[in-house]
Amino acid sequence: MNPFQPPGSRLLRDPWDVRIEPSKAGEVVVVGVPWDWSTSGRPGARFAPSRLRDWIYRFTRHAPSSTDFKYSIADLGDVRVAPGDINVTSRRIVEAARIAYTRGKLVVFLGGDHSITRWTVEPLAENSLGLLVLDAHYDMRSVEEGLTSGSWLWDLWVAHKGRVKAVIVGVSDFNNPEYLAMRAREAGFKVVPRLRLLESLQYALEAVDWLSEQGLENFYISVDVDHLDISHAPGVNSPTPLGMTPWESLRVLEYAAGKLRPRGVDVVEVTPQHDVAEVTVATAAKLLLYTIHNTLVNTT
Fold first, then answer.
1. Strands, DSSP E only, in 46-135?
2. Which of 72, 83, 262, 298 is deepest in the core (most CB within 10 A)?
3. pLDDT tens digits for 186-202?
4. Count of H helices and E strands in the chain?
5. If DSSP codes are grouped into helix, strand and coil, which group holds residue 47?
6. Bond into 130 cis (ω within 30)
7. Distance separating alpha carbons of residues 235 and 74, to the nearest angstrom
8. Where are the domains of the chain?
9. What is the CA radius of gyration of the chain?
10. Model confidence over 17-43: pLDDT tens digits?
């Protein structure tokens, strides 16, 4: 017997244990965006795409509570970011997104800090766009100088007034300045605070219904992992005490994926070097897998 096996091979040698793996073409297109030069918190989200991939591709296709994951994944690799240069990088992200949207039914972007969403949605926002954002923050800031990943949603709305509507679920108390709530109201966005979900998840589901009824051409789901409680997501740019639980998030994402049938989904703000036992990246990857599955389950 040959004593060698390819590097990185699993020790478990079960030929019937089929895992999710990338192929040359598929209903799902994956794009990594290793950019985090816009963060003013804990940097490191540039390293998340590779860690998220590692977890996604270690899951099996079997789902005893649902139908098995039968979709093929085309992984296009990472956007060639220009470190520290948002002008070059943003153009490349938009170009990569345009290509990706032509390749499959659903495009998955692996961030990166949350500023990447401003550019991954740009091809969709040129028509009309409905955004579901899971986030502890409004991300509608203005800063005197420099970059911040906390301004992308405001910048998007200013650039595409009338064509962008959004629902933000999970906004945390005592984590945001008051003027951001005023901006969200000005933009006509629906905001579901985190603690409102303790009364009933129905508040979030009704907000998703509202978004689906706005006559929009495209939908997109953005998952900022800091919407989760710090116990479930210690490895993020801005950890959130008393945030949402993964089960609450799963319910909202499950409903929204089926209702909105988004063209794109992203996961952002994971900082692997601050993670504990890969709790954050593993949870984020599984929430993403469920979102992919629930988006496509009735369309393929």
1. 73-78, 106-111, 129-134
2. 262
3. 999 999 999 999 999 99
4. 10, 9
5. helix
6. no
7. 27
8. 22-296
9. 18
10. 888 889 888 999 999 999 999 998 899
What predicted TM-score, i.e. pTM, was given to this entire model?
A: 0.96
Identify the bridge partners of residue 171 per DSSP, sorted by sequence position.
193
Strands 73-78 and 22-23: parallel
Which CATH number applies to 22-296: 3.90.550.10, 2.40.37.10, 3.40.800.10, 3.10.450.50? 3.40.800.10
Q: How far apart are the C-alpha atoms of 216 and 163, rounded to whole Å?
A: 8
Dist CA 216 CA 117 (whole Å): 18
What is the total residue count of the chain?
A: 300
Tokens of 65: 């509570």
Task: Please tell me the distance from the alpha carbon of residue 69 to that of residue 183, in angstroms, as a whole number.
Answer: 40
Q: Is pLDDT of 66 > 90?
A: no
Q: CB under 8 Å to 46, separation ≥6 — which residues?
A: 34, 35, 36, 81, 112
Alpha helices in 9-85 (DSSP H): 48-56
The token pair that represents 4 in the structure block: 């060698």
Q: CA-CA distance, 157 to 118, in Å (whole number)?
A: 10
180 Cβ contact list (under 8 Å, min separation 6): 137, 138, 140, 141
